[in-house]
């Protein structure tokens, strides 16, 4: 489980660094928000994928 979170925060950090400077005070807060958005997108894509597969 921790490996999944590390990969998720690695992606969130890369995406956040595109928009916010790494030395900004609120970088970790925005990184956490981006991570939550990524989790929401993954869960949403998974649910839509399961709806697509049912006839």
Question: What secondary-structure arrangement, pairings included, does this model have?
Answer:
Blueprint: H1 2-19, H2 27-53
Helix pairs in contact: 1-2
Strand residue content? under 5%
Instruction: Average the pLDDT over all residues and give the rounded result.
Output: 91
Number of strands: 0
- End-to-end CA span: 33 Å
- Main β-sheet, in a few words? none
Question: How many distinct helices?
Answer: 2
Helix content: over 70%
Overall, the morphology is: elongated
Radius of gyration: 14 Å
Q: What is the number of domains? A: 1
Global structural class: mainly alpha
Uncertain runs: none
| Order of SSEs | HH
Protein name: DUF1328 domain-containing protein
Transmembrane segments: 32-51
Organism: Bradyrhizobium agreste
Keywords: Membrane, Transmembrane, Transmembrane helix
What does this structure look like?
The relative contact order is 0.12. Helix 1 packs across helix 2. Helices cover 82% and strands 0% of the residues. It has one domain. The protein contains two helices and no strands. It is mainly α.
Report a brief summary of the structure:
The protein is built from two helices and no strands. The chain is mainly α and about 55 residues long.
Main features:
elongated, mainly alpha, 55 residues, 2 helices
